[in-house]
């Protein structure tokens, strides 16, 4: 119908509106109503174009990873009160999509002789206070020089990566270095739980000695159950999704990109929906907890 009204508008100076409406079997009142709304349509089109540009900028700044929920949340943080369905429509029309997660290879190699620590988490990946529950795990990134292994520790209260380490091996020293970093910057509370899988790196005497020296409590999930360490598994899936699964030319390049992702983007810029605070970055979530504690 819009095409019919547009044709009448284009030809009305030649044949007259009344004649064209009779010929095309449309009501003159409907044509004039469409004509009166033309200004509003033009304004909406311009507004959609401006909003689509903002969405594109946010999507690029998120490393092409944000989908509708986080882009909508980022717009609200910037003071833009816009309907979520409108954001979804514009993203669909412009072919803007969030990143999708992929499967990853498991590095868990349990030591059958070692006695694992009890599971103190019990799949409860929630913590009220930062520094009381950590989850850790290992992953491998392919490079032209061989695998680069990455160990991380996340604080469950904020989902902030408080400790990480990278090396060309995945011996116990790797997870110990990451834990020492977490202890140095994570403000861990006495008796903080450090939860992991039953990989040999975490059941080694070297790691357990450092757990004891730091005054932490070790916790291990069951063998072969990824759900017992789901929070750490989720972070690996997110990292692989958002930095991409590819082969880096060398370990130094992969190391630099992982450092940039964790320190520049994930901890300080990437929005996560907190059940009480709404959409915040991990660093902002930690600050909010500290503010509430001080209050």
UniProtKB/TrEMBL annotation:
Q: Where is this region: Disordered?
A: 98-123
Pfam families from the entry? HTH_21, rve, rve_2
Give every Integrase catalytic domain span.
126-290
Biased composition of type Basic and acidic residues is found at: 108-123
Q: Which domain of life is it from?
A: Bacteria
Q: What does this protein do?
A: Involved in the transposition of the insertion sequence.
Q: Spell out the protein name for this chain.
A: IS3 family transposase
* Record lineage: Bacteria, Bacillati, Actinomycetota, Actinomycetes, Kitasatosporales
